[in-house]
Amino acid sequence: MSLNLDKEYLCFLDSSSVQNIPNSQRIIMDSCDPPKRIIKNGQKFKTNGTGIQGVNCNSCLLFTPSTRADEFALILTHFRMINVENIEARDLLKKAMNNPNLTEDYIKVKLASNLSSNYEIINDVNNILYKMLDEEKEDEKIDKLLKRLRRYENKIDINNYRKIHAAKRKYLLENLDTNEIKGLISKEKVLNIILDNYPTHKAALVKKVAEILNINLIFLPEYSPDLNPIEDIWRVIKDYISRKYLKDVEHLKKTL
Fold first, then answer.
1. Does the pTM of the predicted model rise above 0.85?
2. How far apart are CA 114 and CA 156, in angstroms?
3. How far apart are the C-alpha atoms of 179 and 24, rounded to whole Å?
4. Residues 8-100+188-255, CATH architecture
5. How does pLDDT run across 143-185, given as a tens digit for each residue?
6. Looking at residues 48-64, what average pLDDT do you find?
7. In the beta sheet, which residues pair with residue 190?
8. Alpha carbons within 13 A on the beta-carbon side of 90
9. What residues have CB less than 8 Å from 39, skipping those under 6 apart?
10. pLDDT of residue 253
11. Residue 186 DSSP label
12. Do 48 and 181 contact (CB within 8 A), yes or no?
C-alpha cells in the first residue's frame, strides 16, 4: 500500500490509561531550586487518553470517560475537524459533536418519554405472571419469574448505561450522516490513521463514522505495539507522571 503524502494525511493513534497509582516511590522531588521532598498522593485515580500523532497533519491528545465506540467515534470526529481546510465543514462537525442530543440528560428525557404508562407497565407484569402459571416446578417458576422481571426492569430503566450509549450512537450517526457534511468532507484530504486492533476500533459505528469523515483506518498486525511510535511516547509520559505530585484527575489531565 502506497500513500501520497502531498494529497493525503498520515498519522498514528494509540490509547492508554494513565494512572496515579502509589508505588515504591512514595517520596518525590519537586522542580524547585533547591529541590524539595514531597510525599506522593496515595489516592488512586486514572484517565483514558487517546493520542493521535500527525506525520503531515495536526496532532491531538483527548480524554474520554470510557473506551466505548461512541466515545471513540467522537475522537475521530474531533480529529477530522482539526484537519479540514473548509471552514464550513469545520463548523458543521463542531455542531454535530456539541449537539445537545448527545448529552446524558437529553437522552434520559427521550428514554423517559418513550416509556409505557403505569397502566401498560402493570399489564406487562401481569402478562409475565400469567405466562409462568404453566411451568412444571414451583422453584423453577419463581426463578424464571424473577429473571423475567429483572429483564423488564432493565428495559424500562432510563439509567441503564447500555440504553444510554445505544441512544448516543444513534444520535451521533444521525448528526454526522448528512449530505452537507459528506459532500464537504469528500473534498478534503483522506486521513490515514494507523492504529491497533482494539475491538472498539473495529465497531460498526466507528467504521461508518470513518467512512463519512473520509478516514482510512489502517490496522497494525496483532501483537505488534513496537510498530506504533506513540507507544514510546506513552512510556515517557507515564514515567513523567510517576514522578509528579497529582491532586486529582483534572490535575492529571492538565499535567498531560
1. no
2. 9
3. 56
4. 2-Layer Sandwich (3.30)
5. 665 566 566 555 666 677 888 889 999 999 999 999 999 999 9
6. 91
7. 8
8. 7
9. 26, 27
10. 72
11. T
12. no
